[in-house]
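Please fill in the sequence for the structure shown.

STRUCTURE ENCODING:
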């Protein structure tokens, strides 16, 4: 069982103007998949604050850190930039797979600027802010993430064998 931290990035949710629906939706999916959830976090769309929250989650030894929100084209959508500040190795296959899955649902799926990467023993993954899109994107990569975390956390790795 791995630990997971969900970080919602949203000015309006942070100010209490809108209820966070994406964070709880993603948390429910992760819990259903067997992750032990660390307390969630909520931050505004400010690059330095997002990066600091990501670093704090790495310090909590979260195996998986998932953000929701801030991955679009709006001027304040800076979650990928904050994530890029924190990670030391990118994992481009995860967001590529998420965008491919999204494109099967909507042609706008290609507009996601989500990234993913590794910082120390943590995998950080950006998801969209829409609850529906966040869950769909996470579902697209949940199985490969489990194998990736096993390798990241020092477990046996044989990508050539299919896991049962």
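FILLED IN BY: designer on duty
SEQUENCE:
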């Amino acid at each position: 069982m791995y630990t997971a931290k969900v970080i919602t990035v949203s000015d309006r949710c942070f100010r209490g103007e809108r209820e966070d629906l994406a964070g709880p939706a993603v948390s429910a999916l992760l819990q259903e998949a067997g992750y032990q959830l660390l307390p969630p976090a909520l931050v505004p769309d400010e690059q330095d604050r997002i990066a600091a929250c990501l670093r704090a989650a790495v310090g909590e030894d979260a195996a998986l850190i998932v953000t929701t929100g801030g991955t679009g084209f709006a001027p304040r959508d800076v979650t990928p930039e904050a994530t890029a500040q924190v990670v030391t190795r990118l994992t481009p296959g995860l967001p590529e797979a998420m965008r491919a899955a999204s494109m099967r649902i909507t042609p706008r799926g290609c507009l996601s600027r989500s990234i993913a990467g590794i910082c120390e023993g943590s995998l950080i993954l950006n998801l969209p802010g829409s609850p529906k899109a966040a869950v769909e994107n996470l579902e697209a990569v949940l199985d490969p993430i489990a194998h990736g975390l096993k390798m990241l956390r020092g477990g046996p790795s044989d990508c050539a064998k299919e896991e049962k």
